[in-house]
Amino acid sequence: MALFFTCVLLLIAGYYVYGSFIDRIFGPDAGRAVPSTTMRDGVDYVPMPTYKIWLIQLLNIAGLGPIFGPILGALYGPSALLWIVIGCIFAGAVHDYFAGMLSVRNNGDSVPNIVGRELGPVFRQFMNYFSVILLLLVGIVFVLGPGKLLSQLTGWPVNYWVAAIFAYYFLATILPIDKIIGRFYPLFGALLLFMSVGLTVTMILSPEHELLPRGLHLNNVHPKDLPIWPLMFITIACGAISGFHATQSPLMARCVTSEKNGRFVFYGAMIGEGVIALIWATLGLSFYESSSALGAAIAAGSPSGVVNEVARGLLGGGIGSVLAVLGVVILPITSGDTAFRAARLIIAEYIKMPQAAAMKRLMIAIPLFAIGFVISLGDFNVIWRYFGWANQTLAMVMLWAAAAYLIKRGKLHWVCTIPATFMTAVTFAYISAEKIGFGLPYTWANAIGIGAAALALGAFFVAFGKKVGSVPAE
């Protein structure tokens, strides 16, 4: 029990200590005009209260990742908890903060324009295509995942729920942000709170399950003996660091009313997601007697089956377990809707099509959803693995862009350069070893990952080492 609460306290301390440090490095200006007022259009640029923006940001970024990822990550043992804490404080929250604040500073720009401005036109073009592909994968994963959970809860066919969720996504993509997202997210947040607090308290009080019975150790206990490096760092994405968040932070960058709110909205929401990830990793480690038992449950019913089993096991089969499962369901739904919305905006920026008129939003949304539906017919497990790699790759590129922003202004770039280098090694090692990539032996794959990280770091200093302080402070 002490380990779980220590991890939670470390995340909270990280927000106040390291989050404040990151905020000082960036230097928010309370008197600077923000996009929600200078570019207000009543559709995407809409000023909203800070508490509501934080809640929307949390629900936007916290999809299936901080639930399914930590459940799968728990197979490796308590090391999953350490990665969530360290990754969230020093990588994920830093990534989200800069993705959001660089958007605030640049008229609410989406991630391709942010990356292009700092790393050059080649990266801009790459990110235009790559981010849209990632968002499609996110939207699809976050249709199929909640569809399966709702099917298990109601007994209705998965296809019915998939169609209903797609219909909701379409409306949330084309309507003004304050009409559906701004109105319904407080209710969704209440369900999320019930799920998070209810399951944690019940687990602590449960006479049948001891919280983290196996204690703290770094042994790899995966039942299939899969290596922690690099697999765990791809598996646990959204609870530690996620490139998907770089596509979501600009949505709220268009709604904040002051730069001073950036630490709370962007860094703080990621800390909140880290707590959710800790809860589900802990449940995975505690509800089942061993990693083999957890692995068997995942094999029998996927992570969604584990969610249903844990909720029913701790809260019974009544309204409590229903609300807990619904609390899990709203996370992917509230990320899937904004995934398609962000894809629409990135495409609109690329083709320079203003989005104030409903017809122009439909011109992008209709073919976007048609493509998404076709991809959703594929194998969920394969889609999930591609999503995991693409997600962390985008995070890596965004961190390099933030590092470039800082070094060009003579600021402490290492806060972004170190996690960028680390994620470069992770993503290259993963794609080199996995069957969806090159299928190389892990010894070779790890060497490629380390070599790619070293080359990226060297290229960074070659490109920007002579530009230290070349851009005046803003």
| The CATH C-level class name | Mainly Alpha
Could you give me the name of the CATH homologous superfamily?
Amino acid/polyamine transporter I
Please, what is the average pLDDT? 86
- Rounded to the nearest angstrom, the radius of gyration is 21 Å
Shape: globular
What is the strand tally?
0
Largest sheet: none
Q: Separation of termini?
A: 46 Å
Q: Based on the coordinates given, report the CATH architecture.
A: Up-down Bundle
Q: Which structural class is indicated by helix and strand composition?
A: mainly alpha
Task: Provide key terms for this protein.
Amino acid/polyamine transporter I; about 75% helix; about 475 residues; 19 helices; mainly alpha
Notes on the structure:
This protein has 474 residues and is mainly alpha-helical. The protein has a single domain (2-385), classed as Amino acid/polyamine transporter I. It is 74% helix and 0% strand. It is built from 19 helices and no strands. The protein has helices at 2-16, 18-26, 35-38, 50-61, 65-73, 79-104, 111-119, 121-154, 158-174, 181-205, 228-235, 244-253, 262-287, 291-315, 319-351, 358-376, 380-408, 414-433, 442-464. The longest helix has 34 residues, at 121-154.
